[in-house]
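Table S5 (text form). Sequence records supplied for joint modeling of the two-component complex.
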Amino acid sequence: MQFTRRTKKVALGSNPELYGHCLQLYGQPPLESVSLVQFETFAVERLKLLKSVENLGVSYVKMSDDYQKKLSTELCSLNFPHRTSVEDKNQTGSTEYEKRRKDHISHFILRLAYCQTEDLRRWFIQQEMDLFRYRFSILSAKYKTEFLHRNNLKYDTISIEEKKTLKDELINSSYGISGATIAEQEFYRVPFQDALDLVRLRKVFLQVGYAYIPHQDIVTIVLNDFRTRLSKALALTARSLPAVQSDERLQPLLNHLSHAYVGQDYSFQKNIGKVSLEQIDPLSTTSFPLCMRQLHKALREQHHLRHGGRMQYGLFLKGVGLTLEQALQFWRAEFVKGKVDSEKFDKAYAYSIRHMFGKEGKRTDYTPYSCMKVILSNPPSQGDYHGCPFRHSDPELLKQKLQSYKISPGGLVQILDLVKGMHYQLACQKYFELTHSVEDAGFSLNHPNQYFTESQKLLGGGKEVKKEVEPPQRGQEIAGSNAQSAPTQSPKVQALDKMGDLESFFLDE
Amino acid sequence: MPTSDYDPACLPDLLPLYYRRLFPFSQYYRWLTYGGVSKSYFQNREFSFTLKDDIYVRYQSFSTQNELEKEIQKMNPYKIDIGAVYSHRPSQHNTVKSGAFQALEKELVFDIDMTDYDDVRSCCSAADICSKCWTLMTIAIRILDRALREDFGFQHLLWVYSGRRGVHCWVCDEAARKLSVTARSAVAEYLSLVKGGEETVRKVVLSDPIHPFISQSLGVVENYFNKYAIVDQELLASKESVDRVLSLLPEDVRKELLVHYQNEKNPVNRWGILTDLVNQKREMSSKKGGYFEKEIMLQYCYPRLDVNVSKGVNHLLKSPFSIHPKTGRVSVPIDVRNVDKFNPFEVPTISLLCEELDKSRADEEEDGIKNNETQSAERRKIRDYKRTSLAKYIKLFDQFLDAMAHTRKGEILKKSDLQKEF
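The corresponding structure-token record, covering 931 residues in total, follows.
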């Protein structure tokens, strides 16, 4: 990578060809020299931007009006390119050219920091894609076409005759296309593998392995291209990483950058052995988030949970502080009340519990699921009780449940409104505030275990925790409980070993 | 015939015979080598065995057909599962650096299990099935088979009876085997319509416009719905089942229907009233959507996929021709062209097959003098299965393999033609 051949000279002069369009596919790495200070500023600001992209994606429906408005503000305030014309100058004085240069260079710096593990790559690609989607979609038609030309992106279009024969199918498979508008739209025919986001949502017509994409959705194919290129590039970058890491000026900086995104992972070591099995029943009503309360109730009633539930609840309990022995005892005691006898439990279920604690198989010490994971991955199906109750329940059932948990009618309306607006974490936070009788929770909820910790703090259940003698680390862990403030305070404490195995973690499910 | 008398206790006695004389090793090997494009394709494939007392042995792999045969005949597994093709031989997975051992390819698989339909069938529950609810599997096969072929363009689909209460589908096209995890999950989600767990009542929600895939699937369901759901499952006969159907409808329709239903007890007519009313409301309303009768049909009949099985490249799935230890039935291929005729209770059990084998051996000994003693064991084995009721299923498997070989040949020709052009 070019960063290794750094000189102290600062290359002058601009490169209009490279930055001729406000959006780029980052095909060419920057060849100019950058000062260390600028290197760091660029990187940190892009990281801030990507973190905002991630946060906005959780709090708002992606690409909704609010999402776009907030993201636009972020781009402006962090001085990233946001307009189509090069001449624009904004209040802070950076020219559009400078912004485009910064966009370019900062992207490549973060590639270095985020190519190291599968987990980091996944995060980086996701945020860069969301950012790209937004930036591409706000381009006017003219600039979109120019972008395609400039980057030599050509896709097969279908003939007018074909369009006529497939008219009904095309209209019924794409939103916002009618008999009147179909004639004006170009349709692209690509292998379905190149339009997975549309396939997944059934927003495109499929025939014999090909997806027929209206021009209005072309962003999907472009994004797919972007993802493929970025993912390849990251793999290549990872290979040349040893050379970069030997540079003692860059290595600490890059490490610091890549640790910044992880946030609190609520791994269990710090709480271990703090909870007795008898406490779980009362805790489940006072301090468990709704998702875990639901799972606990289902487990007590059915004496069984299916795989998804065991994973979500089991890892949560591990985060709460159950030891492996306690966990085995807990699950066995409940399962043998149902259809499973002790012998079958040992054969069929004990393995997976030891597995959760990293005692079997790949020996990965799994971390509890975050809200994002609970909301986005593995939705519950028949017989399942896991997932996020705010996301995965019928509003009517949710309403009844909340009523039975003595939520006031006023609070109920607020929660249901948030659910309607798809702000599931905010709804959960509102539930927290109402059940703990506080005006403002004072944290932004993104993890079920965070809910538990915060609840214990408020209810004074943390007393036992405080008694323990284990001084130096504790302070940092508590300070780190707010994901936002974590990165600068404890870059090293956040366990590096948690990242490497994330892929196997997903595969193992 | 004393066929259904399978006793799980006899399994250890029957398995050696089954694996020695009946299991179609040569076809099996032919399948998993895929024309021998790459030598390691078979060698890096994971097999896993379930032995007596649920002992589970993962990461088995074999260099040759002979090695696979010998090992299976030695271990006599109660159940065989097939996993992914890995970057290294699975049997040596501990010797490579962790992280380097990765699942590269696998057939795209689907697993449909009757237990996932428990909230919508009244005839049986859990592991039980009957000819009534088996219709659900027939519908599932028809819908998915059509979509995988016509929408996704796959050609080589092997449908297999799981041996107990469900069906599996192995999509074996090269493109399918190479799909990424993301692509697999996208395909599985495209094909999933019934969503939500115990906390969701209305599990199918349709919005305008109705995607061609859904219309096509509805077309399949419509062929079966009246006979299966209204008549066989008595969807609108008892008060409880009526209540459950009506809970999927909006308040006003529900109330109106309850009035109608007081005078009309015939389930078929009741369904007629329901659809008429919903259609009428839809036409009157200016709002789009409101396809409630379609949603009900889908919620009760649409295939319920175990998405997690399809997603993972490294997920294991019970192998065709493996025995189901609980029922003794063989996992046999299903003929999709005659899927309506498939009856899970006619699938041979291992005890029946062994009996047939004994019988044919007895016949053989009678005219044994004519037998040429130099006959190879291989030929004798072919004759063995041909004398049992397994024969027609192995024939189906052969046809499936021939079709794949045909496609491969076509592609090789195309490639060499292209090369000549340059």
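Note: Confidence is low (pLDDT under 50) at residues 1-13, 86-92, 462-509 of chain A.
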